[in-house]
Amino acid sequence: MKIDWENLYPVDGLILDRMSFAADRALACEGIAMDCLIHVCLCDDETISGINREYRGIPSSTDVLSFPSVDYPVGQTAGSNEHLLRMEYDDQTGACFLGDIFISVPHMRKQAAEYGHAELREACYLLIHGICHLMGYDHIKPEDKERMREMEEKILSEISVSRDDQPDSVDDTLLMLAREAMKNSYSPYSSYPVGAALHCTDGRIFTGCNIENASFGLTNCAERTAMFKAVSEGARGFDVIAIAGKTKPWPCGACRQVLNEFAPDIRVIVTWEDHVEEKNLHELLPEGFGPDSM
Ligand code: THU
């Protein structure tokens, strides 16, 4: 899912990342293969109550508002109406526009505290709720409400943020994203997929996979894909990288050297099957040659 973010209220990059992942899973759960676009505005209470007043005649604040661009037949949802989605296709974005979602960040935080669960969980839930509306679900009649709840729970379970979850740690999120990134690996020659997720000190996360080449030497490892994506987007500080593989995927020498250039103190977490191990880059590249060596 493409998301046109309008971040009027600052939210942790980790939360944004998991919300994007939730949006992808929402489309997959609904069985939509086409690329879709949503506009998501993260705002304050005043902004959302203004929108509520203007478009719904309700002059009060709320947690989430959604405005679908598609009018689905009564009782039907997006999955069985791809022809209607296709009419929303826009050449410029390369996606079918599903509609707009507004989320009040202060409201989201208050609810997370009231329910006693992580902000991450509440933010993902509100986005999923909004996307379900954009996909034609509603909760006016009891039977519709039940169907919408079922879909929401299905999507939530796929992003591993259940109602009882303790706040997720950065490490858990990185491990999950590294495993996801592994699925994008282009490794027809080695059949050894690798995924990486790199956490920047400014809160952003960049993922990467290994990308092989018929002239073998041009292969790029997952760690370097993630690092090069990050550096080319202006990131310079990094504190953790998670790497996922089929067997224990400690980074190769070239990747250790590239990590050392930007983050000699970085924590490196590897995962394979259901194992997780961690080392510091100093242990993996003792006496490394870096910018301070010259
Ligand atoms: N690979 C990585 O992506 N990261 C490493 O640090 C080690 C190796 C990839 C490169 C190649 O596509 C495959 O694993 C087998 O070497």
What general form does the structure show?
globular
Instruction: Classify the secondary structure makeup into a structural class.
Output: alpha/beta
By CATH, the topology of the largest domain is Collagenase (Catalytic Domain)
Enumerate the distinct ligands: tetrahydrodeoxyuridine
Q: What is the element string, with H for helices and E for strands? A: EHEHEHEEHHHHEEHEHEEH
Can you tell me the CATH superfamily of the largest domain? Metalloproteases ("zincins"), catalytic domain
Number of domains: 2
Give the CA-CA distance, first to last residue.
45 Å
Radius of gyration, in angstroms, nearest whole number:
21 Å
Tally of separate helices: 10
Describe the structure.
This protein has 294 residues and is of the alpha/beta class. It folds into two domains: 2-159, Metalloproteases ("zincins"), catalytic domain (Collagenase (Catalytic Domain)); 170-293, Cytidine Deaminase, domain 2. Helix content is 40%, strand content 21%. It has helices spanning 13-30, 45-56, 82-86, 105-115, 119-134, 142-158, 170-182, 222-232, 253-262, 281-284; strands at 2-7, 36-43, 64-68, 89-90, 95-104, 195-200, 205-209, 238-245, 267-272, 275-280. The strands form two sheets. Strands 1, 2, 3, 4 and 5 form a five-stranded mixed beta sheet that branches. Helix 9 links the parallel strand 8 and strand 9. Helix 4 crosses helix 5. Bound molecules: tetrahydrodeoxyuridine.
